[in-house]
Amino acid sequence: MTTPQRSFPTNLGQERLLLAGVHEGIEWALYAAPLWNAANGYVRLPDSHPWLAEPLLSGYNVIDISGGITYGPDSEGWIGFDTLHACDYWPDSPFEPRPYDRQWTRAAVREETIRLASQAAVALRAGDRS
Question: Looking at the whole model, is its pTM more than 0.90?
Fold first, then answer.
């Protein structure tokens, strides 16, 4: 696994970094969330990435990620998603999981982040916004 070469998402820095790498040419990172030992996932879009032309990625239906894009893009092209939505459950949460909650682990966040990196790589190769 490789540490991102260029930067880290704005305001997160290296101290909250849990894991990072590169998948299909796309940098990715997991960062500690502020509650319940949770983690959030991020990928860095290269400068030429077509998603950067979108004014608001949070409502961009082409990206299939749990809870949607909730971060970015920042000045370095980082986008991300969080795992502390109403229907997200972490084992260290003080609440009991409900039958419809998505139960997260850091391994599951890593898988979801890699899935986001794969989608970003496909869109970059296609050169369009899909």
Answer: no
